[in-house]
Amino acid sequence: MGFIESIKERAKYKKMKIVLPETNDMRTIIAAHKILKENIADIVLVGDRERLLSNAESNRLHIEDAHFVYPTQFDRLDEYIDKFVEIRYKKGLTPERAREILTSNFLYFGCMMVKMGDADGMVAGACHSSADVLRASLQVLKTKPGTKLVSAFFLMCVPECSYGANGTFIFADAGLNQNPDPEELAAIAASSAQSFSTLIQKEPIVAMISHSTLGSASHPDVDKVVEATRICKEQYPFLKVDGEFQVDAAIDSEVARLKAPDSEIAGRANVLIFPDLDCGNNGYKLVQRLAKAEAYGPITQGLAAPVNDLSRGCVANDIVGVVAITAVQAQQAKYDIQHKN
Question: Under DSSP, is residue 297 helix (H, G, I), strand (E, B) or coil?
Fold first, then answer.
């Protein structure tokens, strides 16, 4: 069973309610049809019910089992407005402006559904920029308690690969933070390890990536990764993490024996933390294209509740996959809350 199929099966085990706000895009309607047919999640579609049903019917799609919410007719709209104003009052948000935003910008309305407990997560970005999705998420949901920043990763599944966890890796940050400092790199490493554990259900082994392996090169860029590794080991002593490593030393045991013989992490890594967005983003694209790998993401981590972004070039099946991932993240979030209490 492939990664995304296993995620779908886990999502089905305890269905979460995921809101899809981009209902003017036909890809969203096709994805909703597939999600409901496969029983992956409960779906909330933000928009006029009759229009959406008619649109689906004319394309031989079945979405009648979805939940439909139209903001201007929503019976809890005033509660949402009051809460939104409470969240953003320091920024000068008025009730009138809050009403305007929530009834016209469905990204904000979807995030408010998650904030108010009417949905467990949200997936968007098919027709909005990543900046738009992240802005709404951060303004409404904020960061997860104990998390220093929001970051994004790609989950890579490389066919016929013995490296990583049977060819499965997390690459981070490959979608959001341009040039993280050492503290931020350490936080990205901790969040990525947790994401790997949640989604792959195997032990994360974290490598801090550089163009140097354990002092083989000298440069301020290397110093940043060295310091990030030190901080990570100090602040997250439970993690299996080491560095700085070149990628070959991080994942290939033969190279690791030559370059880092005393490291327990070298040659075994399945979570790769790149020094900046240029490295992470281009790294995942190279592996995706040259190794014909499946690349799922950018998946967001560090928000108070699961909200995930889509590529604007996505197809309906991509949305289905990200909804399944978001549902599993939501299951974990609920579990964490229950066991903290």
Answer: strand
Of 113-127, 139-153, 201-215, 241-255, least confident by mean pLDDT is 139-153
Q: Token pair 């409960």 is at which residue?
A: 42
Q: How far apart are CA 35 and CA 32, in angstroms?
A: 5
Place of tokens 């967001």: 300
CA distance linking residue 224 with residue 322, whole number of Å: 32
The pLDDT tens digits for 78-104 are 999 999 999 998 888 999 999 999 999
Task: State the pLDDT confidence band at 1, using cuts at 50, 70 and 90.
Answer: low
pTM: 0.87
Other Cβ atoms within 10 Å of 137 Cβ, number: 28
**Backbone φ, ψ for residue 103 (5° rounding):** -95, -10
Cα separation, 81 vs 98, whole angstroms:
6
Helix axes 130-140, 77-88, angle to 10 degrees: 90
Tokens for 21, please give them: 């706000």
The domains located in the chain, with CATH, are 3-142 (3.40.50.10950), 151-294 (3.40.50.10750)
Counts of helices then strands in the chain (DSSP H, E): 13, 11
Lookup: tokens for 222: 């290397």
